[in-house]
Amino acid sequence: MSVKRQTIPKLIFTIVIFFFAPLSISVAVADIEDCGERVNNSFVKLLECVTLDGVRAHQAAFQAIADSNGGTRAAGTQGYEESVWYVANTLVAAGYDVELNPFDYTYMPPATLEQFTPFGAIHETGAFTGSGIGTVTASVTPVDLALGNASWPADPSTSTSGCEAADFAGFPAGNIALLQRGACFFAEKAANAEAAGAVATIIFNQGNDPTRMGLIVGNAATFPDGSPSNLIMPVVGASFPSGVALSEPGSTAFINVDPPVQVIQYNVLAELGGKNTGNVVMAGAHLDSVQAGPGIQDNGSGSAALLETAIQMAKVKPVNTVRFAWWGAQESGLLGSTAYVSGLGQEDLDDIALYLNFDEIGSPNYVFFIYDGDDSDGVGAGPGPEGSAQIEALFESYYEVRGLPFKGTDFNGRSDYGAFIAAGIPSGGLFTGAEVIKTAEEAAIWGGTAGDQYNPCYHLACDTFDNISLEALGVNSDAVAFSVLRYAMNTEDINGVKGKGNFDP
C-alpha cells in the first residue's frame, strides 16, 4: 500500500480485550467458545458463530467506553481513542495483524451556550465549521424568526432568517444574533450577522417538522460559490426548543468557542490474506459517534457486527483478500474513509474489487434498506459504479431467502461509501434508517410506529445500548457475515474473477 501506516503485530499487546466491557461479555464469548477453534468457511458454520450475543458484547464495550468518557466516542476525544484500541486489540487477539491508518483531523472542543435571562439555562450546542473563536456575553436579538408554536411549527417556506442584509435593519451592534435554519447557506446568515455588528451568532434548527427539531451544527466556512467566509465571531448551533427559549424578550447569553486542535486520528484496518492478493474485498463501518452521545446504534451496530464477523472469519483461507475497516471522523464529514481512499495510488485502487458499507443496521423503528446500486428506485443520485447493481442483488437474495421485505435507499453521500464510489469502486451495503419519519405504508410492512423517526435517538444522548431493534440487528449481522464471506470466496459477478464453491444464498 502507498499510505503511511502504523502496524500492530499479533500478540504484541497484553491489554485485556474486554477491559471496557461488563462481565456479561465474557459469558457471551464463552457460549460460543468452540467457534474459535474451527474454520468457518461456509455460510452454515459462519452464521452459527456470528451471534447476536457476540455482537451485543461489542456494543456493550462501546457503551462502557462512552460512559467513562463523558458519554461520547466522537472523533478527537478519549472515547474515540479507546474505541480504536478496543477494536484493534480484539482483532489482534483473534490473530490479525492490525493497521492503524492515520489522518489529520481538526478537533473542535465542546462549545458553551448558557442563557442568563429572563431565566437560566444551559443549552446543548456546538461550534459551526468556520466559526471564529472567543468568549461573548451579550443581549440576544432575534432576526426574522418564524416560530409558529410548539404544536404547529412554522411553514418551512417562511423561514428565511438572516438570508438578506435587510433582515438586520436596526440590529443593535454588539448583540448576539439569533438566527433560524432555512432557505440559504449558513455562511450567508453568519456573514450578514457579522456585517451588521453581531459579536456572535446562534443558528437554531428550523422546527418545521420532527426531523428539524434537534441540535443543528453545520458548515459556515464557505459560501455557495466555494469562497471562504472568514468569520471572526463565534457561531454556534442550537435546537429548535433552545432557539424558542433564547428568543424570549430580554434574553442574554454567554457563548464560548475554543480554538480548534489539530490532531492525528486513526482508521482501524485488518486484512485476511487470500490467494488473490490483487483482488481485495473491503467491508467498512464508521467507529465514531457524534459529540452528543455514545453512538451505540449509530454506528456501534455496524461496527460491532463487522468486528464479530472478522473474529469468526479469522481462520478462513479465502480466495480473495478481505480488508476490514473501521473509519474515524465519519460524523465530521466522512474524513477517515476519504483520507484513506485519497491516500491510495491507482494500482491500490484498482486492486479493490468492491466496498461494502454497514451504517446503522439495528434502528429501533427499522426498515430493511439496501443501497440502490442500479438506481431502480429512480430517487436522488444515480446508480453506483458498475458492479454495484450486483451487490444490491446479492443482499436482495439474502432477504428473499429469509422471507423478509426490503427497500432500496439512495446513495445520498452521507456515509463512507462516498469516497469509494467517487473512485469508481463498486459499492453497496445495508441501512435501517436514521432521522427520517417512517410512513404508514412502511409500518404496515415492517411494523413499528408510523410518524416516528427510524432512529428516534439519532445523534442524541439517548443513542445507548438500549436504543436498538434486536430483530433488525440479528438479521443484519447475519447479512454482514453472509456478504463478506460470499465475496471473500467469489467476485465473478462483480469483476469476472472466478472463485470456488457455491456461495449463493
- What's the overall average pLDDT, rounded? 89
The amount of helix comes to 25-40%
Low-confidence stretches: 1-5, 8-31
State the CATH superfamily name of the largest domain: Zn peptidases
Number of domains: 2
Rg from Cα: 24 Å
Give me the strand/helix succession.
EHHHHEEEEEHEEHEEEHEHHEEHEHEHHH
N-end to C-end Cα span = 33 Å
Helix-strand makeup class = alpha/beta
Number of strands: 16
In CATH, the topology of the largest domain is named Aminopeptidase
CATH structural architecture of the largest domain: 3-Layer(aba) Sandwich
Major sheet size, sense and barrel closure: 9 strands, mixed
How many helices does DSSP assign? 14
Shape: elongated
CATH top level assignment of the largest domain: Alpha Beta
| Strand residue content | 15-25%
**Order of the strands making up the biggest sheet:** 1-2-10-12-11-13-16-14-15
Walk me through the structure:
It contains 14 helices and 16 strands. It has 505 residues and is of the alpha/beta class. The strands form two sheets. The protein has a nine-stranded mixed sheet. The chain has a seven-stranded mixed sheet with strand order 4-3-9-5-6-7-8. It folds into two domains: 334 residues, Zn peptidases (Aminopeptidase, 3-Layer(aba) Sandwich); 146 residues, 3-Layer(bba) Sandwich (Glucose Oxidase, domain 1), CATH 3.50.30.30. A hairpin with a 3-residue loop joins strand 3 and strand 4.
